[in-house]
Amino acid sequence: MDVQALAATLDGAVRDVRAVPKLTDAEPFDVPTAYAVQRELIEHRIRRGERFSGVKMGFTSRAKMVQMGVDDVIWGLLTDGMQAGETADLSNLIHPRIEPEIVYLIGREVRSVAEVESAVAGVAVGFEILDSRYEDFKFTLPDVIADNASAARYGFGAWHEPRDLSNAGLLMEIDGRPVQTGSSAAILGDPARSLRAAARLALGAGMTLEPGWVVLAGAATAAVPLPKDAHVRVTGAGLGSAEVTTR
User: For a designed S-S bond to 190, which of 55, 128, 166, 241 qualifies (C-beta 3.0 to 4.6 A apart)?
Assistant: First the structure.
């Protein structure tokens, strides 16, 4: 497989804001190849001046694993260019969706899975804006991995001292209307398990979680379509809120 060509196709979809057919429609490829495409895709961003800022986890619910026919989570890479501020411009996204997240702040380099929880410097409630680059938001497992697990934008609220988040209630509102409610327990039963998986997958790929990086542990609810000119607030029990306005 021409990994660079596949990554260039996806990078072009991002930059041109246009959906493309699934890469596997032309020729199937396996998961290791998909991760090689993902890494090359992110390298396009790095060469344009962005910096790594963390990782995001996907397929962290049992229902999603069953739907995709997998028995492990997937992950994607985050850059500082993906971080949303108070506003998020949706004009350069294809078909954005948003979901509530539990976010971990890494305080020191993580050299083993065993030490990742002690390396957490803070926790926060947050959100992730997804945007598959594929037509109709449909993909196979290798396709979505290659597409950096549909990562587009992310944000989070104020940091809090690390704590037990195995069953924290979450509420997501759009323009003051509740659109999703759930519990952090939907994230692998405890988002700490997702944190450990992030360390495992990063180390397996020859990377370490670095100080200042964030880990998006995975969605506590299904993602919902994200409209323009909307105000989104995600609230977590004991964690305050994270807010963003779209345009």
Answer: 166
